[in-house]
Prior knowledge:
Layout: E1 6-11, E2 27-30, H1 36-47, H2 61-70, E3 73-82, E4 88-96, E5 102-109, H3 118-129, E6 135-140, H4 144-152, E7 156-160
Parallel strand pairs: 5-6
Antiparallel strand pairs: 1-6, 1-7, 2-3, 3-4, 4-5
Amino acid sequence: MSEPPRSIYRRETSVGVPARPLPVGVSLRLLADRDDAALGRLMERAYAGTIDEDLGDNSDGVVEVAGWRRHGGVASASVVAVDDADLPVAASLATRGSDGGAWIGYVFTDPGWKGSGLGTSVVAASLEILAGESVFAGVTDGNTPSERLLTSLGFVRTGPA
Length: 161
């Protein structure tokens, strides 16, 4: 089965990051190594039933997160939204491309928190860390929530992947 087409989005450094209020009981923090298993499970729940359900080459979120870490993952620019129990409910995982460019590699939100602005909040926080750099993101064509999130933060579609 062939992969669905994807598009590349780019955000220039001159675009400001708007402030995003967080829901009550949620805070943002940098990704920690201890988060990987919880992030893997969260990724599986978040992508279930969506256009990106296959999680790349496998259906295992923990394997996907481990692959992200091995292939350019940048924990110092990756942000998680956590609930009162410090469990991740949304994440923005940043990465470096082979040319050193900054990318938002993954964005996902627990289904129970979708529509609360957490995806936008975690990406905005990653963008603040990556201030001064152009940032890219790849999106599966037809993933309307991701397309809207990126454009709301100043990303522009630059063409097919």
